Amino acid sequence: MNKDKSDKPQQAIALSYQSNTNAPRVVAKGTGYMADKILSTASQHSVPVYQNKTLASMLMAVELDREIPPELYQAVAEVLAYIYHIDKKMHKF
C-alpha cells in the first residue's frame, strides 16, 4: 500500500476482498523487512500497488484477518477503484 523512502520505516498492507463478505480484510501488514516482502510478493504476482502514507498508517491499526472499519470504507473504495482501473488497462488487448 505504501512505499516511502523517507526516514520512517516503510509500511505495506495487503487487503483481500471476497464478494461474500461485508468489507475488505487486512491479510498482511508490516514495516521494514516485512513491508519489503509484501511488496516483493505483490510484484511477483503482478498485483498493483497503491501508495498512500496516511491510509497505510490507519490500516496498520487494523488487526490481521479483520475487516476494515466503516470509517475507512471511502478511502479503501478509492483504492479498489484505482486497482480496478489499472487491472482493466492491463488486460485490454
From TrEMBL:
Organism listed in the record: Pelosinus propionicus DSM 13327
Signal peptide interval: none
Pfam family, one: Bac_export_2
UniProt keyword annotation of NAD present: no
Single biological process term from Gene Ontology: protein secretion
Highest taxon listed in the record's lineage: Bacteria
This protein's name: Flagellar biosynthesis protein
GO cellular component, one term: plasma membrane
PANTHER family: FLAGELLAR BIOSYNTHETIC PROTEIN FLHB
